[in-house]
Amino acid sequence: MILSVKNLKKTFKDGDKVLEVLKGISFNLDKGDILTIKGPSGSGKSTLLSLLGTLDQPDSGEIVINQKNLKDVKDYDLIRNTHIGFIFQFHNLIAELNVVENVTIPTLIAGKKIDTDYVDELFEYFDLSNRKKSFPLDLSGGEKQRVSAMRAIINKPSIVIADEPTGNLDEHNAIKMIDLFQKLNQDFNLTFVIATHDEKVFNIGSKKTNLYDGNLLEV
Amino acid sequence: MNIIFLIAKRFLIPRNMLEGGIINIISFLGLFIGSMSIILSVAVLNGFQGILEDETRKIYGDYAIINFDYNEDKELVEKFEKNGIKYAPYYEEEFFISKNKKQSLVNLKTVDNLRFHNFYDLELIEENKNLNHGEAIIGKSLADKMDLSIGDSISIYSTNLNMSYLAMPSTKELIIKNIFQNRILRSDEFLVFTVSREYNLSNNKFTHIEMIGTIDGMILKENKNIISWKERNRQLFDATEIEKKITFFTLFLIIVVASFNLSSSVMQIATKKTREMAILSTFGMSKNSISSIFLVYGYLLATSAIVSGILFALLIIYIQNTLGVFVLNPEFYLVSILPMEISVKDISLLLFYSMIIIGLFATLPLMFIKKIRPIELINKNI
C-alpha cells in the first residue's frame, strides 16, 4: 500500500462558526492506482489534497505515505520533497528559471546531484528536448503544463497530487495531458490523486470518488 | 549550482532588467558611491600621509637612539658601518635665536658634518650643503618669520641660563649658510642644523644617534631608548590617523543610508515573489532556505555594488598615479599632483564593516518572510 488515509477530519473557523470540511475520510491506494476525486466547489477537494500533500495538518485522523505515518514525521518539507509530486491548475513555473532549472527544482532542493542522463530521458519522454533552455514565457500552455508534470515526477515520488490539472488548458491540450497521465501511470507505475471537475480526467481513475458534504463516496 | 544562489541571482538579474525596479538601482548606486567615496578619500589621506612620512624620514631617519654614548655603543656604530646602515650622531639643545629685535625658540641640532651630508635629505635653497664651524642651516619658515637670508649672522642664547661672568646668558654667533624647506612638518620653523669643532664621534659629546634601517635583532643596553620617527611626531600622525578614521566613519554613513534602501529592495522582491516562495515551499524547500534566497539576494546586490565601487575607485587611483589628472597648486599643497595611495587594510576594513551592515539590513525583511506559513502562501498564490 502506497497511501493509507484513515478517518481524516478537518475543520475551519470562520468567526464563531466552525466549518467541518472533511468529516472522516478514509481510503487506501496501492502503487499504480489513480484516484480521481470530483465534487462541487467548496466541497473540500483542495483541503484534502493539502492534507495529503502535507501542506496542512488534519485535526484528527491518520495519513500513511509509503509506510511513513505523517504523525511521526517532523520534517514535512522532506516528505514533500521526496514522496510527493504536485501538479497545479496553473503551471506555476518560476519565470526567472529556464525549463531544465524549473524541472530540477525538487532535486536541487534535496541537495542531490542532477542525473543528467535521467533528465535527458525525461525530456525525451515528454517531447521537450528542444525546450530545455527556454524560459516559461516562451512556452505554450500545454508545454508549460508538461514541464510542470515533469517537475512533479523528477524525484520519483510515491504519489503525484494534481489539483485541476487541466483546468487551465484548452480541450486539445487537456486531452494530451490526460493521455500523458495514463502513460506515466503505465510506464512508471506512478500513483495519482487527482481532483477535477473534468469528466474526461475523472474517468481515467482506477478509483473514482465523489467528495460530497465532507465525505468521500465511491462512484 | 546551489539552488539558493541560482534563484537569488536570477531574481537579481531578471531577463527584463526593468523588472528589478528602480529601488534596486538606487540601492546599487548608494552602495557604489559610498564605497567609492571611502576608498578615494582614504587614498588621498594615505597619499598625504605617505608624503608626510617621507618628509619626516628625511629629517629624522627611521629611529633615534637616546642616551648615545660612543664608549658604550662603539659596537653598535661598528655594526652600522659593517651593514651599511646610515646613521648620524647629534646633540640637541634649545636656544633662543635673536635678530633685528625678533626672537624665536629653536632646537639647535649639532651634527657631524660628514654624516650630515649623507644622512639628512634636506630640500635646500642653495646647492651647497657643506657646513663649517660657526655656520648653520635654518628652515624657511624661521627665515621668513625673522627676515633672515643666507649670509646673515644670528645670535643664539642658551635657554638653560648658564650665565657668563658678566651675568649675561651664554651667546653664540652663527652665519646662515643655507635654508631648508619642510613645510609639512613645520620643522623648518624650529630646527637649526649646525656643526662644531668641539663635537665629533669619538669625543663623546653627541647624546643621540639617528639611523635609517630596521632595528630587528639590535641588542641595546638598558639605559638606551629607541624611538621611531612616528613616535617623535606622535601628535601629527595621531591627528592624521584620527582624520582618516573620521573620514571613513562619515563616508560610511552613505553605506548605512544605502543599506536602508537595500532593506527596501529585499522587502520589495520578497513581497513580489510570494508565488515563487509558495512553489518552492510546495516542493520541500524549508522556510530557512527560502529566507536565505533573499539574504543572498541582498548580499549579491550589495556586494556587487561595493566591489564595483572599490574597483572604480582603484581605477581612478591608477589613472591619477599614472597620468596625474588632478593637479594641485604646490604653493598651498606642497605637491603638484593629488597624491593617492591604495591601502589593502582600508579596503579590507570597508568590506568587513559593509558585510556586517548589509547582513543586518538584509536580515530585517527575513523576519517578515519567516512569519509566512507555506499553506497561506499556497492558498493565496497557487
The secondary structure category of chain B is alpha+beta
The gross shape of chain A turns out to be globular
State the end-to-end CA separation of chain A: 21 Å
Largest sheet data of chain A: 6 strands, mixed
Amino-to-carboxy terminus distance of chain B: 26 Å
- The residue-averaged pLDDT of chain A reads 91
Q: Quickly count the helices of chain A.
A: 8
Output the strand order for the largest sheet of chain B.
2-3-8-5-7-6
Rg over alpha carbons of chain A: 17 Å
What fraction, in percent, of the residue positions of chain A are helical?
25-40%
Give the helices and strands of chain B as they follow along the chain: HHEHEEHEEHEEEEEHHHHHHH
Largest interface, Cβ cutoff 8 Å: A-B, 27 and 24 residues
Strand order of the largest sheet of chain A: 6-7-8-3-9-10
Outline:
The complex is a heterodimer of chains A (219) and B (382). Chain A is built from eight helices and ten strands. With 219 residues, chain A is of the alpha/beta class.
Break the fold down into its secondary structure elements and pairings.
The complex is a heterodimer of chains A (219) and B (382).
Chain A: E1 3-14, E2 17-29, E3 34-38, H1 45-52, E4 60-65, E5 68-69, H2 76-83, E6 84-87, H3 99-103, H4 105-110, H5 116-125, H6 141-153, E7 159-163, H7 171-188, E8 191-195, H8 199-202, E9 207-212, E10 215-218
Parallel strand pairs in A: 3-8, 3-9, 6-7, 7-8
Antiparallel strand pairs in A: 1-2, 1-4, 4-5, 9-10
Chain B: H1 3-12, H2 22-60, E1 63-66, H3 74-83, E2 86-99, E3 102-111, H4 113-119, E4 123-124, E5 135-139, H5 140-145, E6 153-158, E7 171-181, E8 191-195, E9 208-212, E10 225-228, H6 229-232, H7 234-272, H8 274-282, H9 287-323, H10 330-333, H11 344-371, H12 374-381
Parallel strand pairs in B: 3-8, 5-7
Antiparallel strand pairs in B: 1-9, 1-10, 2-3, 2-6, 2-9, 4-7, 5-8, 6-7
Helix pairs in contact in B: 1-9, 2-7, 2-9, 7-9, 7-11, 8-12, 9-11
